[in-house]
Structures are given as C-alpha cells and as structure tokens.
Amino acid sequence: MSPVILRTLDELRTLVAEWKAAGQSVGVVPTMGALHQGHLSLARAAKEGCDRVIVTIFINPKQFNSPEDYENYPRTEEDDARKLAPLDVDVVYVPGPEEIYPDGFSTTVSVAGLTETLCGAHRPGHFDGVATVVTKLFTQSQADRAYFGEKDFQQLQVVTRLARDLDLPIEVVGCPTIREEDGLAMSSRNLLLSDRARVWAPELHGAMEEVAEGLGQGESFEALKAKAIARIERAGFAEVEYLDLRAADTLEELAAPDRPARLLAAAWLAGVRLIDNIAVD
Ligand code: AMP
C-alpha cells in the first residue's frame, strides 16, 4: 500500500498521537531522499522492529558546506514514494523548511569531541546541522526507535551520543552498509558520478579491503595506508581527505587494531565526495 505523505508537523503529531493511544511502537528513518537499497534496508529493519514506520525526507540545508552542493543534491520525491510503497511504510514525512526551521529559529545542537575529527574536520558545521535536524526529527516524530546506516559511521556515533546525552526517549539502531555488486557503498551522491567515474569509484572500497587484509596479517598500518592512498589516486581520485584507523566506539586514532576498530575514508572523485568505512577484526 502506498504510504501517506504528510508535509506538516500538525498532521504528523495527530497521527502519531493516535498510534500511541493504541499502544503501538513507532520507528523513524531519517533520510534526505534519492532513496536506494541502503535506505530501504533501514525501512525494512524499522518495519521488523516497530508497529508503525515513518520515513522522513528532508534535504537539510544546515548540513551542507556549500550552496552548490545543496542545489545539486538529487531530488526524486515521486520515485522515492514509489520505492517505499511495497515496504508497507506508514508515513513519508516531507516537511517544508518552515516546519523544521520556523522564523526566528535560533537553536543549534552541537556534540563535542566526536565531531571534531574525520568528516567533522573537513566539513565545518556539518555535524551541528545533522545533530540539530536529527533532534528536531526525533522530537517531532516521537519515535521509540530511529534507524541509521553504518555507511555514515561517524554520524551514527554522533546521533547515538546526542540521544544519550539529552536523555531523548529513543533507541538509536545502527544497520549494516548496503553495497553495489562491485563493492561501492550505495549513496545518493553516486547519482552525481559520471559513467567513467562510476567505473573507478569501487577502488576506494577495494583499497580499504586490502588495508584490512594486511592488518589481519600483522602488517603496519602506516605502510598499508600509503599503498592504499597510491592505489586510490591511481584509480582517478583527486584527493584522499582521510584514511584512518579508529577505535569503533570513541573514534580515537589507533596505530594498530588492538581493540574493535574501524577503517574510515573520504575521497574526492570527479567533484563528488565519497565516504566509506569497514570493520577491522
Ligand atoms: P542520507 O539520505 O544520505 O542522509 O542517508 C539517510 C540514512 O541512510 C542514513 O542513516 C545513512 O547512514 C543511511 N544510508 C545511506 N547509505 C546507506 C547504505 N549504503 N547502506 C545503509 N545505510 C545507508
């Protein structure tokens, strides 16, 4: 059944109040649209874990670093609703900017520490934008559970931290990264890649897998990192912003995977910024 599309907070509140009165649990899946199988996997997880599911689509201006990036972000609302129809999602919430940032809006939610490295170091203000909109979407939806992808691993840690710090009555659930057959992590931004760049893009993940394998065999991270950056740049990437080994929980830098670790990378390919991360056992 096609989901109901709601555009105002009033409508959303009324419906969620009915669900809550009936004792039903509510899951929310925040997205910026241009939905792919990664997003749909979150919606499926939400359907399994909750009686009612809201998918939100809001392209949040506060988390972009340039007006061009915001303008160029793919907008595919009709397609998105069509993709959600078979999943039995209850509501697609597509708020206008005034529902999220009404006139005079002056609050920023800022998570210290975790947001200062990796993507946070390269995208000033990005995580403040994410934390602020996520807090709004949590309080607007009054959901019991929220589903986020490990694809944006740092974001998942930031959102988990903020929900804990602010005692928000919501459980943050992380879900695995969904990939194309060639290993490229699915992302709405992949739509912005030229045909040629799309062929090169999986090298990022390929090089990261090589690092993880080398670490498993006891090789030094520094040497593996240099080799991986050379491979990624040879594949046509313009710049590797970071390729780091981090503690999976605190994101602090590691020289070797002596506890649960994550390899995280961001790199530019033909004007598109791609990010990826994998677990290192
Ligand atoms: P976005 O629309 O890019 O803001 O992403 C919305 C949600 O979908 C976030 O929780 C992302 O981490 C998640 N997501 C994006 N790509 C993937 C993927 N390939 N696999 C799993 N989750 C994803």
Summarize the structure.
By secondary structure, the protein is an alpha/beta fold. The chain has eleven helices and nine strands.
Task: Explain this structure.
- Helix content is 40%, strand content 20%.
- The chain contains eleven helices and nine strands.
- The radius of gyration is 19 Å and the shape is globular.
- It starts with a strand and ends with a strand.
- Adenosine monophosphate binds at residues 31-32, 38-39, 41-42, 148-149, 151-152, 175, 177-178, 185-188.
- Residues 31-32, 38-39, 41-42, 148-149, 151-152, 175, 177-178, 185-188 line the site of adenosine monophosphate.
- Which kinds of small molecule does this entry bind, naming each only once? adenosine monophosphate
Number of helices: 11
State mean pLDDT (0 to 100 scale). 97
Order of helices and strands: EHEHEHHEHHHEHEHHHEEE
Give the helix/strand class: alpha/beta
- What is the percent of helical residues? 25-40%
Radius of gyration: 19 Å
Main beta-sheet annotation = 6 strands, parallel
- The percentage of residues in β strands lies in 15-25%
> Looking across the biggest beta sheet, what order are the strands in?
1-4-3-2-5-6
Overall shape: globular
> How many strands in all?
9
From the N-terminal CA to the C-terminal CA, the straight-line distance is 41 Å
Poorly predicted runs are: none
